[in-house]
User: What shape does this take?
Amino acid sequence: NAGVTQTPKFQVLKTGQSMTLQCAQDMNHNSMYWYRQDPGMGLRLIYYSASEGTTDKGEVPNGYNVSRLNKREFSLRLESAAPSQTSVYFCASSAGTSGTQETQYFGPGTRLLVL
Amino acid sequence: QKEVEQNSGPLSVPEGAIASLNCTYSDRGSQSFFWYRQYSGKSPELIMSIYSNGDKEDGRFTAQLNKASQYVSLLIRDSQPSDSATYLCAVNGRGFKTIFGAGTRLFVKA
Assistant: This one.
């Protein structure tokens, strides 16, 4: 039981390049999330998915797109990377479909540097 | 005003002491409150959750919630060097919008 896995662990991009961050969970959770963590800012929600086939914007969605490929997988795409997107990206999942009172389980993170 | 505020620290306590971590939040409609621990370079992991006013104890950890004062705290008794980490307060009001504080760094001196 691996929990939440993320690939890649580390990536360097040039401004304007695109990439997709992959996330998968094996806990049969319904909800999945993408966060970014910057120094002094805490975790900020980019997008979330309450169930397979649905996605919604979080606090900082601009410059990102997501796909809930199936119940297990939730990907985050940067179409044209900018230096402001340099951050650590965490994927998380939770069991329910309401978000309330739900513990979130986090993946190991992807460290992204945009030059 | 930030929605969830924490003192960034570092909070330094000697081994065996009680560490007290505090968090205030702005949304009076908040319903769920969480404390996550994050070691340097690692992902957050849940320590405690609390949903109603009062205290909730789990081993060496006690979470305290006061909705009237919009205040939630985490006490760590008998602090150990292995408790040295950043502690994130997270508040959930409605649906999926969980707001995280920036975290308090705790350092436990051996």
Remarks:
- Chain A touches chain B through 27 residues (CB under 8 Å).
